[in-house]
Structures are given as C-alpha cells and as structure tokens.
Write a structure and sequence with these properties.
Blueprint: H1 5-8, H2 26-36, H3 40-52, H4 57-70, H5 74-87, H6 94-109, H7 113-126, H8 131-143, H9 147-160, H10 165-177, H11 181-192, H12 199-208, H13 212-220, H14 229-241, H15 245-258, H16 263-275, H17 279-290, H18 298-311, H19 315-328, H20 333-343
Helix pairs in contact: 2-3, 2-4, 3-4, 4-5, 4-6, 5-6, 6-7, 7-8, 8-9, 10-11, 10-12, 12-13, 12-14, 13-14, 14-15, 14-16, 15-16, 16-17, 16-18, 17-18, 18-19, 19-20
C-alpha cells in the first residue's frame, strides 16, 4: 500500500524548509488553539466551520488529523493527513514534512508498520540525514520483528546525530521494550562517553544501566529551572528501584498537585500505590488519568483500573470493565486470560 501521494512524486519535489506560507482565518486559529488545549472535539467543530467558509484545505485536513490522533481515531487521522498532503500540490515545505511525520505515526498506531516505514522512506528520500525519521523507521521495523533493519536504521540515525544523548537512550528503550535489551546495552555505554550530557540524561542512562545510586544523584542534581515531568518520573522510578516506594509516591503526588494533567505520572503513581498496598488510592490515580482525553496511555490505564478493582475484591466491576476493554483491544491475550479468571469468580 502506498503511504501517500508524496511517495509517487518524491523525485520531482524540491524541498524548502521554510514556513508553510498559508494564511489562517480566525476560525482556523481557534481550531488550532483548541488543539493546543487538547480540546479535540472542539477543534473538529471549528475545522468543520472553516471548511464551510472555504478556508485552506491543507490546513483544515492537517488540523483534523491531529485532532483525531488525540481522540485515538487513527484510521480517520490517516485519511486526513493524506488529504492534507494531497492538497499541498506536491510542494513540500516544513509543514508538509511535519504532516508526513504525523501520518507515519498514525499508520504505526493503526497497526500498519509497513505503511509507516514507507512514509519514513519518503521523508528520507527528501532528507536522507533526518535522524528522527531513521530512528522511527527503526522502531517500526522492530515492531515487525526485523532486528537487522532496525539496527541499520538506528546506526544511521546515530551517524547523523552522534552527540544527541537522548537518541541513544530512545534506541535503548525501544530495543528493551522489544525484548532486545542486550543489543541495546552498547548504545547506553556509547552515550556515557559523549562530551555534552545533562544531569537528567546521565540520570536516565544510569537508571537503564541499573546503577540506581548514581541515577538518583544525577536526577536530584537537576536544577529547579530544568524540572519537568520526565525528571520526576525517572527520579520516582529510581526511588522505587531502590525500595523506597513511599517517597516515590510522594514525589508523584506532589508533582500532580501542581500539574494534574500528566497521564504518565498518574499511571506510575497508581502502580506505585498498588505495590504499597494502597489499592483504593491506586484506583483513583488510574481514574484520574482516564479523565484526561487524548492520552496514548488509555489502554494501560484501563487495564490497570481493572487490576485495582481486582485487588479491592470487586470482581463484578472488574469483569464488566474487562468485557468493555476486550471490545476495544481484542488482541490483548493477557487480558483475555484475565477475563477467563474473572468470569469464574
């Protein structure tokens, strides 16, 4: 399957990495503002209005695609991103590159890893040294079980961004997630030898190297101005690994009291509370995360909510939620086995 019209015209397109050159109407601007505020339903309403008044098709389709991505409607997003690229008339500028990345992500999330790889190939045909496209293509190859192709892409990405510590870490995390942690170890060691590396990056590296004492020291040395959710997440996970889950939970809770919209920390707090035996608190944390729309962690949060109900011995509620969960994620074999257990309670 061809990913986009972009692939067909790749040889004749000239690349301009300047601005998009399109003019936004007030209606389009309000739609884009809704996207920034994660109000995806509101954004779609504005884009419908913009279409009715004859605004820029490329911008409308792109905006719709981003909104549908936020609502986890990946198939719908694919169609919109393709329509946006078609409306570009074959002129690829910065915005069209960005749209192509969105398209590849939507394809990947919809389960079409091959389509995602084709789209990354189209991007690389125009910008062969694009390390982001190379990394993401490698990640897609991993999902297809093609380790050799993945490593080839990862190594090419590093060749083009050799001083980016986060790239090495992202490669390791991807390999670890796919069950190839041993192949990823060399990337962590290489990153440690880089000349320019922040305390946060060092902390992540030490965490993945399971050197938790040094990870804690580096992460706690991060200045207040550099504090963000990722720092808190890794510091908390480091304390968990060191056995101090109570302090980890307090870190997560403190951050969420000021930044309640962070889904990943909601989920990690819930997991930490389950490990501490605080099942009612864990349930609330997972449900708080589920209230935040457009999250990529919705599946994990829904499953963890079910687990929390099980720990609370509310097997009837857990069974009802599992039935709904399997309708949304029918390929989750672990959940299906858990459903059989719940049905017998």
């Amino acid at each position: 399957m061809k990913s986009t019209k972009l692939i067909l015209s790749i040889i004749i397109i000239s690349v301009m990495l300047s601005g998009c050159g399109s003019t936004e109407s007030e209606t389009l601007r309000l739609g884009m503002q809704c996207l920034e505020n994660s109000d995806y339903t509101g954004a779609l309403a504005y884009f419908d209005e913009a279409e009715a008044q004859g605004d820029d098709t490329e911008l409308i389709s792109r905006g719709r695609g981003i909104a549908k991505m936020g609502l986890a409607d990946y198939e719908g997003a694919i169609g919109d991103f393709r329509a946006s690229l078609d409306a570009s008339g074959g002129h690829v500028k910065k915005m069209e590159f960005d749209t192509a990345f969105y398209l590849a992500t939507a394809l990947f999330k919809a389960g079409d890893a091959e389509g995602a790889m084709e789209t990354y190939d189209a991007i690389l045909g125009l910008d062969p040294k694009n390390s982001d496209a190379l990394f993401l293509k490698g990640k897609a190859a991993l999902s297809l079980g093609d380790l050799d192709e993945a490593l080839k892409c990862f190594n090419r990405a590093i060749d083009n961004a050799p001083e980016d510590p986060d790239l090495y870490i992202d490669i390791y995390e991807s390999l670890d997630h796919a069950g190839f942690a041993s192949e990823g170890g060399s990337y962590l060691k290489s990153a440690m030898e880089l000349r320019s590396i922040t305390n946060y990056q060092k902390g992540k590296l030490y965490y993945w190297l399971q050197d938790y004492d040094n990870a804690k020291s580096c992460l706690e040395a991060v200045g207040d101005s550099e504090q963000n959710a990722d720092v808190i997440l890794y510091l908390g996970k480091t304390y968990e690994a060191l056995g101090d889950r109570s302090y980890a939970a307090s870190l997560y809770s403190s951050w969420l009291s000021k930044n309640p919209e962070n889904v990943e920390i909601c989920n990690q707090l819930g997991l930490c509370q389950i490990a501490n035996g605080n099942y009612a608190d864990a349930l609330k944390s997972f449900q708080d995360g589920l209230k935040i729309s457009g999250s990529e962690m919705t599946q994990s949060l829904r499953f963890n909510e079910i687990v929390a109900y099980e720990y609370l011995s509310d097997f009837k509620k857990a069974s009802v939620l599992m039935d709904s969960y399997l309708k949304s994620y029918p390929d989750d074999e672990n959940a299906r086995r858990e459903y059989i257990f719940l049905s017998s309670r």
